[in-house]
Write a structure and sequence with these properties.
There is one protein chain. The chain has about 150 residues and is of the alpha+beta class. Helix content is about 35%, strand content about 20%. The chain has 3 helices and 5 strands, in the order ββαβββαα. The strands form 2 sheets. A 3-stranded antiparallel sheet has the order 3-4-5. Strands 1-2 form a two-stranded antiparallel sheet. The longest helix has 21 residues. It is extended and about 60 Å long.
Amino acid sequence: MQREQPSIPFERYADDIIAHCHSAAQAHWLQARIAARLAPCHLELHPEKTHMVYCKDADRRGSAPRDSFDFLGYTFRPRRSKNRWGKYFVNFSPAVSARATTTMRQTIRSWRLHLRSDKTLDDLSRMFNPILRGWVNYYTYCLPLYRFR
């Protein structure tokens, strides 16, 4: 992407890519270019995982079939936000995904805390704080695509 399409910003993690296009026409054009680039390597875009998403916010009020996507445990979608003066507006921003919260809940249930009445609070803290701290650090400080422009 940097070599062939330097004007289109993108993010990549392993085999997942997000490209920021200015229009649907540019997105379709880029998708065709990427597919053509992958073909000589005997690779192809996954048809169920390749989407074009409209990043709706206060400045972009159009509509499209898809206006949200999941990436790295976050769901990016239009959300109501409040600016520093207390005024509300619509912002396209990330938050923990439903799938990630389900996984976290299942993990906590698997700890079977109700059966650990023999443990002190310090014991429980030593056992589970590293996991909880990891979740908090990842979902509050590591917003991978959230940039202030």
